[in-house]
Amino acid sequence: MDSVGVAAAAPDAGPGPAWQSKCPWGTPSTTSISCSLADVMSEQLAKELQLEEENAAFPEVVAAAEGPFITGENIDTSSDLMLAQMLQMEFDREYDAQLRREEKKINGDSKVSISFENYRKVHPYDSDSSEDEVDWQDTRHDPYRADKPTTTPKRGFIGKGKDITTKHDEVVCGRKNTARMENFAPEFQVGDGIGMDLKLSNQVFNALKQHAYSEERRSARLHEKKEHSTAEKAVDPKTRLLLYKMVNSGMLETITGCISTGKESVVFHAYGGKSATEDKVIPPECAIKVFKTTLNEFKNRDKYIKDDYRFKDRFSKLNPRKIIRMWAEKEMHNLTRMQNAGIPCPQVVILKKHVLVMSFIGQDQVPAPKLKDVTLSSEDMKKAYYQILNMMQQLYRECNLVHADLSEYNMLWHDGKVWLIDVSQSVEPTHPHGLEFLFRDCRNVSQFFQKGGVAEALNERELFNAVSGLNITADNEVDFQAEIEALEKMNEDHVQNHGKKLSTFSSDGDPPIYDE
Ligand code: ADP
Ligand code: MN
């Protein structure tokens, strides 16, 4: 019987209960070594034991980290308070996990169950139990590619003749209400209503819904308070713990400091360390993009993700923290697609929750300059232009992506070529606003190079057609934009009617290749 769930996976958990191996303090002496008093007092031995325990606590860890814990001016690691908070948080989570297991043990298969909910230390919204941890480290599989939207029949009934059942049928309706509870925030425990064929009346369902929402708001408020109480500009304790683990595992050597603080993310520089697995090489220098868990900034980006069918099903069911993880996930998958197409961009090293580690574009801690900050010779400028034109076409055709924030701010000049970064908001061309995003990208690129004196630079409309392979003939911006929106609408109608998207927009054959 496996009553301990995931923790049982820890390989050298020893004879103690397996959950202890997840505890930051590890398993109390699993092997009985007899030793002298000198040994007991030895600091060296204590350190070794500590390392051993940490390795057991985080099984992915292989190499022991001798190097400094996160160093650099921007990260204050000397704060005992911070360390204490991190440890306390781990402890609380451990405590809660234990409670959950007790609960499960006592309840067993019984129809009547008890709950220890009120004894929990971490509010459901703050609990990040590793059970639901998804890292998507396996970048070969892009979980969003296969998902196609499904349509529900517009008519409000199923069946024929006598057997017709309308959506007002009490039993059907009751079952539907039960199923709809799954849409409540994931932390809201709804039990197995479907399993026991529970039929909820509308009245009961609505009361429950109301309760779920107010509970969600309450925890969001609590959460917000906590976020704001920690240094807003730096990283919160959870992120710190994640970074700590990366350094501690030896995967990163040192985190040297902050490269950029944006509205939605903070980017750090780090020296790469040793990989836990042979086949993976950690780049000598890494960039760590931390997606901010302060939620406000992400609100205005909803449109990029909400309408993206790859995420549609998941979006409505997720709490804000998970949505932020999705941004990080999205950036990872988009970077991987680009990498596969040979587009110069950072290489993904690892994704942990909302923290994405990738290769660093630049050298000796100095990030490559953005295109807007670098002065190029006219020859390089022309070279950069054609390279970008190519990359935009590759992105569209091979990666099936539109960057959606392409400008001289998100292109770096390094090693005599342009590198694309910042692709968390990139979408597929058939996204309801995908073509509008592409047009905006084209406008940015076109204007930048025309101002930069590249005589060959296409105007935004020509560029749009060249990238998309569409043949929009309007000769002014307003009409052009109207045609774009009409195409998007056509695609949406197609989705409504056929339950799936057009694989691509119809085009007059392959787009022309523009080259030097
Ligand atoms: P934001 O959403 O904050 O704009 P970006 O991904 O554009 O996030 O990163 C912000 C800045 O951090 C970039 O403009 C760039 O200067 C730097 N940066 C990001 N990723 C890397 C990287 N892989 N290598 C070097 N610098 C990077
Ligand atoms: Mn950016």
TrEMBL record:
Subunit notes for this chain?
A: Interacts with CASP10. Interacts with IRF3; RIOK3 probably mediates the interaction of TBK1 with IRF3. Associated with 40S pre-ribosomal particles.
Question: What chemistry does it catalyse, as a reaction equation?
Answer: L-threonyl-[protein] + ATP = O-phospho-L-threonyl-[protein] + ADP + H(+); L-seryl-[protein] + ATP = O-phospho-L-seryl-[protein] + ADP + H(+)
Subcellular location, principal: cytoplasm
Q: Provide the residue span(s) of the region labelled Disordered.
A: 1-21, 124-161, 497-516
Tell me the GO BP annotations in alphabetical order. defense response to virus; innate immune response; ribosome biogenesis
What is the annotated localization of this protein? Cytoplasm
Query: What are the GO MF terms of this UniProt record?
Result: ATP binding; metal ion binding; protein serine/threonine kinase activity
UniProt domain RIO kinase: residue ranges: 224-469
User: Which CDD domains does this one have?
Assistant: RIO3_euk (cd05146)
Q: Which UniProt keywords apply?
A: Antiviral defense, ATP-binding, Cytoplasm, Immunity, Innate immunity, Kinase, Magnesium, Metal-binding, Nucleotide-binding, Phosphoprotein, Ribosome biogenesis, Serine/threonine-protein kinase, Transferase
Protein name in the entry: Serine/threonine-protein kinase RIO3
**By its UniProt entry, which SMART domains does this protein fall under?**
RIO (SM00090)
Question: Which InterPro entries does UniProt cross-reference here?
Answer: Kinase-like_dom_sf, RIO-type_Ser/Thr_kinase, RIO_dom, RIO_kinase, RIO_kinase_CS, Ser/Thr_kinase_Rio3
Output the SUPFAM superfamilies linked to this UniProt entry. Answer: Protein kinase-like (PK-like)
List, separated by semicolons, the cofactors it needs: Mg(2+)
This protein's GO cellular component annotations are: cytoplasm
Which species does the entry assign this protein to? Callaeas wilsoni
EC numbers on record: 2.7.11.1
Regions of compositional bias (Basic and acidic residues) in chain numbering: 137-148
Which spans does this entry mark as compositional bias, Low complexity? Answer: 1-18
**UniProt family annotation:** Belongs to the protein kinase superfamily. RIO-type Ser/Thr kinase family.
Database matches in PANTHER family: SERINE/THREONINE-PROTEIN KINASE RIO1
